[in-house]
Every structure is written in C-alpha cells, then in structure tokens.
C-alpha cells in the first residue's frame, strides 16, 4: 500500500539527487578529465508492477548522469525484469549498482510501505 508521507519523502530525496547530479555534470564540463568512466550496467529489478518499474525507470532517467537505455521483460518466475542503465559518474560497476539499488529500495519502501528484500539476498549484489 502506498504510503503518502514516504512518497513525499522519496520525491524530496529525488529533488536532492537531481540537484547533486546537475552539479556533477556542470563540474565535469569544466574539468579537464571530464567523465570518470561511463558504463552501461545490467540491473535486475525487485520492482514487480508496471507502475513500480515505470516510476523507477523515470527516476533514473530524470537524474542527471543516468539514463535507462533498455528494459528487458521477465521470461518467467525466476527471471526478473531488467533495466540497462547508462551511468556517467561511477567509479565501478559495483558502485553504480549500489546507488541504483539504493534508489530502488527507497522507491519500493514508499510504494509498498515496507522495504524490499536486500539485493544481496535476491541477486547476490550489495546495496547501501
């Protein structure tokens, strides 16, 4: 069940992420080295409904420095939907995945009223 207060908190947190992402992009424009290491990561989802997937993909895309490049639907019960995310500012794939799973955890906590199972438990990945 959607928790309105947690959803407001999520949108406020997203606002902060948009501002900090914008600052990262601006700083990169004026830095000789520019982007640290752009990459595309494959992100299996804990989101299950179309609304959760759409909100999560939109949250990623609206944040400067990240973009959902593709979505792969699940083929069966054991195969979760997957996003392919282009990330500009991450030191490693694990760092990018940790940040994305943190965003997913925050969204699912707001949408479901309780946090999802940890990504490490579900996919063998760590999260913040």
TrEMBL record:
<dbReference type="Pfam" id="PF01899">
    <property type="entry name" value="MNHE"/>
</dbReference>
<dbReference type="InterPro" id="IPR002758">
    <property type="entry name" value="Cation_antiport_E"/>
</dbReference>
<keyword id="KW-1133">Transmembrane helix</keyword>
<dbReference type="GO" id="GO:0008324">
    <property type="term" value="F:monoatomic cation transmembrane transporter activity"/>
</dbReference>
<keyword id="KW-0812">Transmembrane</keyword>
<keyword id="KW-1003">Cell membrane</keyword>
<comment type="similarity">
    <text>Belongs to the CPA3 antiporters (TC 2.A.63) subunit E family.</text>
</comment>
<dbReference type="GO" id="GO:0005886">
    <property type="term" value="C:plasma membrane"/>
</dbReference>
<protein>
    <submittedName>
        <fullName>Multicomponent Na+:H+ antiporter subunit E</fullName>
    </submittedName>
</protein>
<keyword id="KW-0472">Membrane</keyword>
């Amino acid at each position: 069940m959607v928790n309105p207060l947690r959803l407001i908190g999520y949108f406020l947190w997203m606002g902060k992420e948009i501002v900090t992402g914008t600052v990262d992009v601006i700083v990169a424009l004026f830095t000789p080295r520019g982007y640290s290491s752009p990459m595309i990561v494959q992100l299996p989802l804990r989101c299950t409904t179309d609304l959760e997937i759409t909100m999560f993909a939109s949250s990623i895309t609206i944040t400067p420095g990240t973009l959902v490049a593709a979505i792969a639907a699940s083929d069966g019960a054991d195969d979760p939907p997957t996003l392919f995310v282009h990330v500009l500012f991450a030191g490693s794939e694990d760092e990018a995945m940790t940040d994305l799973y943190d965003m997913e955890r925050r969204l699912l906590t707001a949408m479901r009223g309780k946090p999802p199972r940890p990504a490490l438990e579900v996919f063998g990945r760590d999260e913040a």
